[in-house]
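Notebook p. 47: complex prediction with guanosine-5'-diphosphate-alpha-D-mannose.
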Amino acid sequence: MVDNREGVNHGHITGQDGSYLADFLMSKGYEVHGIIRRASTFNTSRIDHLYGDPHDQKVRLRLHYGDLSDGEQISNVIYNIGPDEIYHLGAQSHVNVSFEIPEYTANVTAIGVLRVLQSMRGKGGSMRFYQASSSEMFGVSPPPQNEETPFRPRSPYAISKVFGYEMAKHYREAYHLFSSNGILFNHESPRRGETFVTRKITRAVAGILSSRQKLLYLGNLDAKRDWGYAPEYVEAMWKMLQLGEPVDLVVGTGEAHTVREFVERTFSYAGLEHTDYVKIDSRYFRPTETGELVADTSKAKKILKWSPKVRFEELVKIMVDADMRKAGLQPPGEGDEILRKKFVNPWWRVD
Ligand code: GDD
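Predicted complex, structure tokens below:
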């Protein structure tokens, strides 16, 4: 029933999740509209493989300029397109950066959600809304975290996400919008932004092997996260909007590892000794850090019938293979093999 239905993806389409979601929705026959911010440099590399000539009537991916700080533009886009589904993924999404620019973060990451919800309410109809809520909202609440765990956010980013979460719920309760929160734990891939810790590490390994980088500077190696593989998480987002009722769901692997373990696995897979290259730089420590984040996904397993296939060590190998290839090196290939075995016909372009 959902196949070939026309739908719309609104959001940060140029990011990791937006680009995978565009891949996924287009594989299902959706017409996808994405909002991109104007920039003086090209910022569409993750979706270039999907984008055709906009003069071609058959092109099913359309991009619109917009910014979450500009409510009028958001409202115009929603009004003109009249989407079936809105995936709100846009945010200033870097936790450490949010300490430096708290006001901007709140404007985009918190109030941005409200701008989209207000526009949906104004347009009326039966659009469905997905809010990209985050495990960061749990902050220092002890693990494992599920839908009942209280939020104890520890950064301007996390506080903004709590606002977005509550607004998504509020519009559901007050105005009966189909509005769902996916509380996603960290999810990574070769398309992950280069300043997030996993990608920073896998890129560094490729940089060291190709003599472009000498050392890797990191912050808190004891931080513990629940890391999964991003394409699988995008499928969970879509499944949430196909349910009969809106829901709030925790999505993660249920397994946590330290940054140190990620470093060790990455370097040893590439045949390097991490102690020769990794240095600590205090600038990467955050003024306040979250506790251990570990997802309790019992509800998602039951309601969505979703559980992830890619485990921690496999994720490391997938990311290292991709970054080595990008650096012009021959990767060990175990990551490629894992992908071939676990995903027979992937709907995304494998990097
Ligand atoms: N970025 C970064 N850089 N993090 C580092 C570094 C470093 O050099 N060294 C240690 N870390 C630690 C951070 O202190 C944090 O505890 C952990 O590595 C993960 O950091 P990030 O990869 O930046 O991700 P995050 O967990 O803060 O946030 C990401 O995941 C959230 C979902 O839980 C982001 O994608 C958020 O937008 C998302 O909501």
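Notes: The first strand starts at residue 32 and ends at 36. DSSP finds eleven helices and twelve strands in the chain.
Next step: compare against the earlier run before touching the bench.
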